[in-house]
Amino acid sequence: MADYRYLALKPDGQEIRGKVSANDESEAASKLQGTHLHVLELSPLADRVWWGNFELTLSRKWPPDRLAVWSRQLATLIGAGVPILQSLRIMYQQGEMASAKKVMQAIIARVENGDPLSFAMAEHGSTFPPLLIQMIRVGEVSGTMNETLERMAFYFETDHKNGEKIKSALIYPLVVGLMSILVTIFVVVRIVPTFVSTFADEGASLPIATRTVIAISHFLIHDWWMVLGGVVVILGSDIVAKRRLGRYRLRRDGLLLRLPVIGSLQQKMIVSQFSRTMSLLMSSAVPIVEGVKVARQVVNNDAVATTLQSAVNGLEAGNRLSDSLRESRWIPSLVTEMVAIGEETGSLDVMLSKLADLYETEVASMASRMQALLEPVMILVLAAVVGLIVLAVLAPEFKLIQVLH
């Protein structure tokens, strides 16, 4: 037997973490479900290592672009009339990453024993997202595996493209910001000390700006380890708190959504993911309660995930989805109104698809605007910082020249 670490929800919606022993992930999930827990994350302890007193997770989750290629390849083979087992074997032979070949080998062994593909994939929940597993299960039942995989390939391709647009919008400002920091450190550490000796020899009184720059230079030269240690402590505390404290994650994710510009962009991305996920599931005849449960796991924000868990509780109590979403501060009113219209007209999947298209377009447009705005701003910031340092250093020089003359 092996040990598995899990993150699950109690019937009242409270998160709980723990460890369970089982022969495989499927048995571990069954044990947890038997205790009325809704499993959110389940991973073998073999994927975790200890470094001192800190636990480190070695993630095996495939990124969206890899999931898109995987789904597209399998859809193409099945669409060409190749049986699923043979299709998996062909994909295994073409696998490049060692971890991917290991996962594929385990899935093939399960399918050879007569298990459905979705069941085999569910044992690797740390690799495949819940949405893909659920959709493949639907495709197996409905006999539309080819169409289902094509839709999932499109979903992951869109997700990957949106992520790349955000990265492209932020990478230039980040590079310029990093260069600003490096140039500032270089000037303060290497150039400023050269002038300090001159100031000391002449005994000139220095402006407050110059004294401030000299103090910063001294600190960076002699006490740089304090800055590095502070950064490590802050980042390490954030990582540990995110993994172990549900209340911290909830407040942290809520704060991120309140940030200007970045918060709005993240909110639009979350709404887009939620709408696209729900549209896919509902158009495949997945019950709305199960659809919201899957969407909750797709959304990578605890503040919104808590809203969706409340929506699940409301749906199970007989309420409408739009009523539960309307009570959340994180869900735009446009979303709740369109969901309400979809519920009244019986076309909720169509409305959710339109919402996904709308917000995906807004995300792309907002990312482009951010890139166009941040580039000149970061250049101005860099020029201002370097200019102030140079002015603080040269001002006493001009004063010394006047005194000597």
Walkthrough of the structure:
The chain has 405 residues and is mainly α. The chain has three domains: 2-57, Ubiquitin-like (UB roll), CATH 3.10.20; 64-157, Receptor-associated Protein, CATH 1.20.81.30; 170-405, Receptor-associated Protein (Up-down Bundle), CATH 1.20.81.30. The chain is 75% helix and 8% strand. It has helices at 25-34, 64-79, 84-94, 98-112, 117-122, 130-142, 145-202, 208-222, 224-244, 246-258, 262-283, 288-298, 302-316, 321-326, 333-345, 348-404; strands at residues 2-9, 15-22, 38-44, 48-51, 54-57. The protein has a three-stranded antiparallel β-sheet with strand order 2-1-3. A two-stranded antiparallel sheet has the order 4-5. It starts with a strand and ends with a helix. 31% of the residues are buried. Mean pLDDT is 80; it is low at 46-59.
Structure at a glance:
By secondary structure, the chain is mainly alpha-helical. Helix content is 75%, strand content 8%.
Tally the beta strands.
Answer: 5
What is the terminal-to-terminal distance?
87 Å
- Count of runs of 4 or more consecutive helical residues: 16
Average pLDDT figure: 80
CATH class of the largest domain: Mainly Alpha
What general form does the structure show? Answer: elongated
- Tell me what the CATH architecture of the largest domain is: Up-down Bundle
Full CATH superfamily name of the largest domain: Type II secretion system (T2SS), domain F
Low-confidence stretches: 46-59
